[in-house]
Fold this sequence. Notes:
By secondary structure, the chain is α+β, with helices and mostly antiparallel strands.
Amino acid sequence: MSILTGSAMAQQAGIVYPATMKTDTVDDYHGVKIADPYRWLEDDHSEATAAWVKEENAVTNAYLAKIPFRDAIKQRLSVLWNYPKTGAPFREGEYYYYYKNDGLQNQSVLYRQKGLEGAPEVFLDPNKLSASGTTALGSVSFSNDHRYAAYLLSGAGSDWQQAFVMDVATKTLLPDKLEWIKFSGLSWKGEGFYYSRYDAPDEKNRLSQKNEFQKVYFHRLGTSQEQDELVYVDKEHPLRNANVSVTEDERFLILQTSEGTSGAEIWYRDLQNAAQKDFKLLIKGFDFQPGVIDNIGGKLLVHTNHDAPNYKVVLVDPEHPEKENWQTIVPEKPEVLSSAGVAAGHLFVGYLKDASERMYQYEIGPGAKAVPREVILPGIGSVTGFNGKKDDKVLFYSFNSFTTPGTIYKYDVASGKSTLYTRPTLNFNPDEYETRQVFFNSKDGTRVPIFLSYKKGLQLNGRNPVLLYGYGGFNIPMTPGFSPSNLLFMEQGGIYAVVNLRGGSEYGEAWHKAGMLEHKQNVFDDFIGAAEYLVQQKYTNTSRIAIRGGSNGGLLVGACMTQRPDLFKVALPAVGVMDMLRYQQFTIGWAWAVEYGRSDNPEQFSYLLKYSPLHNLKPGTAYPATLVTTADHDDRVVPAHSFKFAATLQACQAGPNPVLIRIETQAGHGSGKPTSKQIDEATDVWAFTLYNLGVDFK
């Protein structure tokens, strides 16, 4: 074991990087020897790792403190962020509930009011649960008699959650408290609810230990967690996820099992049939992605891509679940059917048209009309909502775009008419900005779309600063979305560009599969191709391009900056999957193998090694100015990914650009991050980006 300083101690742009210890750790992958000199940084409890984190943060903070307009950026972000953010209301009994953040509150508050005209009152305020604002409210589920609300809380950004129960009438907390819940909802049946959990982990390693044997339990109110009934466990497959839900009429208990993030198997229990004690198979897995929407007349409505890469909706009889007996309710179309749900006695389905959402309302049941009604939306953007009970007459939805904050509309189910319900006001004039969609041909000729948002009057002079954002994986589409943080960049003359990469679901399962496993390089080719297109079309040049992505998008940024370091000026990989040979060793990483592949498979190891960001950094290379961001409580993509990547990048950097890592404390992968920490992080990211792009903040 030795200290090798090399270029890590070299002064670049006035920065002296910490001396990072190297060890002689080497792994043998199918006869290929792979060095892992920074393996020791995987131990998030060691004093050496803690000291390294402290030193790296000190270097980063010193660099950022010298940026002259850093404080001005924070002031402007605080103004842009300070507007009321309201979610779409939903009805439970005589109350309507909705989430609202007054502006700069760390966490959104759950409000309620009697009917649509009642006075709002606070129902649950997570801001009062921790002084730092780092306790976040997860899903909330109401019992069908509306007497109780069960909800999940997480702390410091961790995926681990605790469940609590509140009396709805009095808002008093019941003694029920459940631990070690992760990747689970809460689904009521009578005087209790179903949920999924893991066994209690080793306390020391709870943020990095592999999660195995997810179990399903039923909790009866007023009892301890030790008394909960074990409903399901698969002792033969430790790496399968298991989640359950109950249909609205409480008749069917639906079990969905999965071997990762793609593909599922569906089982069911008829809770009205006392003789049925075990789950029965409804849809065999794991080649397709089925999901039960609800129960209609004893049959189950299912959203699936079985023999329909763009998805369809079918009705399945549990007594005769064979595929040849399925009844097609909504057939496959050229556009991908991205969502489906039942509310107000109707089926609401969402489609993606070139990554922008469209909504339709279908009648269901005997004598239903086959012709859907289109919900007329305010423009090109994204929609959430349309949630409700079967007897609702009015629903609500939220619409937003790159330049339009979440705006709430009331939807009359009978007439199909939308009326404005709540529109936020903020210190920003959306009329001064525009979004357009362009298309380019990727390396293999595939047509790929890009959303471009910028201030009106943009000149194609080849000098505009660009922030190129992408994700490209896990069947997740990048639809238009509002962010007060991105407004700041557009105000400074920047172009915010979102690329709809392969690997997402923008064009159905074929688009997804074209960016996974051995085809993952297509995703990076698409992102690189987008940057080249913007240069060719005179939007910008290589000295004015910043690239950004988080999680799987962090992998995207890491791979592209190692493959084409000459193409980008700034790289911003956030909470990224950087070590593609060991990601499956930690927490829930094994579930991503269906998307990426595993290094213990010789064929998959071969292509993983070709793009793994950590393993493709080369000494003596001039890399972009890089700010790696991660957090100490990230138990989704453990921070060791970012630690090892940053240490290696600092050792390899041969150019003048800074290579820094920002490690947030008391925060995780991103979900539930308090507003104060979001603004602090956005301040540092934009200060670093604008400074290195040569943009003088005004």
